[in-house]
């Protein structure tokens, strides 16, 4: 075990920013995707682990603070010197004499950027610089906070492929905070879902998907024709432009596909769609919380920050 969190609570004045009641454990080799809307408590969780904010509860770890790496969403470096000098100064090394740093620079195809000033780097190049700096630490546990935020799709994809390749078969544990579900589907083997400071769900990605979605999910365009065509199948909650159909087993999946093919409907099949899982995990959580509060199906429970959640029995 690298780190264990239990009964963690963070207060900012009268507001509860984080209230984790269950035990969260991070093991060597874990790849944990942390997801949640803005204000869910993701950054507060990282700050608590790093000791940057006051908290109540227990965070136990065998690691020293310097053995936990962090890639923050926003980073600022001096614009008056070449990137090469920034790297050598902050890392207290010389690139020519550091084989590991040379390997990382080559791996991320960063050689052409060394003599540029930071302000002249593109968004993707700036992210690669910070990733190289973090990876030089070779920490047993590293947090990546929105590592590809603001980048175009192609740049994001290339950067994620590099991260996956670099950490393949390594025991370093990673916690990746991201709003891009496709990234987490590639990188994460566990998922931690936060909402309004609470843990909605935590566990193995495949197990959570089966719990909230079933054997597989088939998504199609949301239109009147498709809604009528699939009204007898089990619908999951989904983004407004999609209809998501739950397949509890292979037989049900084949039945749905036959109907869609017969009616010439394009579809996508997935057994790891994190976005659909996330939406339905939240709905399930608030349904259970509503039932505990004595609400009836159809009642509305008002959440923090003006959020409202419709209680539906599940």
Structural account:
This protein has helices at 42-49, 83-91, 99-107, 123-135, 153-167, 181-187, 205-212, 224-229, 250-262, 274-292; strands at residues 3-12, 15-20, 24-26, 31-35, 56-61, 68-71, 141-145, 173-177, 190-195, 198-204, 216-221, 235-236, 242-247, 268-270, 300-302, 308-310. Helix 7 crosses helix 10. It folds into 2 domains: 3-204, P-loop containing nucleotide triphosphate hydrolases (Rossmann fold), CATH 3.40.50; 214-272, Alpha-Beta Plaits, CATH 3.30.70. Strand 9 (190-195) and strand 10 (198-204) form a beta hairpin. The protein has a 6-stranded mixed β-sheet with strand order 6-7-8-4-9-10, sandwiched between helices. The chain is α/β, with parallel strands linked by helices and 314 residues long. It has 10 helices and 16 strands. Residues 295-314 have low confidence and may be disordered. The chain is globular, with a radius of gyration of 22 Å.
Kindly list the characteristics that best describe this protein.
2 domains; about 325 residues; Alpha-Beta Plaits; six-stranded mixed beta sheet; four-stranded antiparallel beta sheet
In short:
This protein is an alpha/beta fold.
Sequence stretches where pLDDT stays below 50 over 5 or more residues: 295-314
Strand order in the sheet with the most strands: 6-7-8-4-9-10
The CATH architecture of the largest domain would be 3-Layer(aba) Sandwich
Mean pLDDT: 88
Count of extended strands: 16
Question: In one word, what is the shape?
Answer: globular
| CATH class term of the largest domain | Alpha Beta
* Approximate helicity band: 25-40%
CATH topology of the largest domain: Rossmann fold
């Amino acid at each position: 075990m690298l780190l264990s969190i239990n009964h963690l609570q963070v207060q900012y004045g009268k507001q509860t920013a984080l209230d984790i009641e269950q035990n969260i454990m991070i093991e060597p080799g874990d790849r944990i995707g942390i997801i949640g809307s803005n204000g869910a408590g993701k950054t507060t969780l990282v700050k608590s682990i790093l000791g940057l904010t006051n908290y109540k509860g227990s965070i136990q770890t065998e690691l020293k603070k310097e053995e936990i790496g962090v890639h923050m969403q926003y980073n600022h470096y001096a614009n008056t010197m070449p990137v090469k000098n920034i790297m050598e100064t902050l890392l207290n090394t010389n690139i020519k004499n550091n084989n590991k740093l040379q390997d990382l620079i080559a791996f991320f195809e960063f050689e052409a950027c060394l003599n540029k000033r930071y302000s002249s780097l593109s968004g993707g190049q700036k992210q690669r610089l910070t990733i190289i700096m973090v990876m030089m630490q070779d920490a047993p546990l590293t947090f990546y906070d929105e590592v590809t935020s603001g980048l175009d799709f192609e740049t994001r994809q290339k950067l994620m492929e590099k991260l996956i390749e670099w950490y393949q078969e390594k025991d370093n544990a990673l916690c990746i905070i991201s709003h891009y579900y496709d990234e987490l589907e590639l990188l994460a083997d566990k998922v931690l879902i936060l909402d309004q400071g609470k843990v909605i769900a935590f566990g193995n990605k495949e197990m959570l998907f089966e719990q909230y979605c079933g054997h597989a999910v088939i998504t199609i365009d949301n239109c009147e024709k498709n809604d009528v065509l699939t009204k007898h199948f089990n619908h999951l909650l989904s983004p407004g432009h999609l209809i998501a159909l739950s397949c509890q087993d292979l037989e049900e999946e084949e039945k749905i596909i036959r109907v869609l093919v017969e009616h010439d409907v394009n579809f996508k099949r997935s057994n790891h769609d994190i976005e659909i899982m996330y939406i339905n995990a939240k709905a399930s959580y608030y349904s259970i919380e509503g039932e505990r509060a004595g609400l009836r199906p159809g009642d509305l429970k008002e959440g923090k920050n003006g959020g409202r959640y419709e209680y539906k029995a599940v």
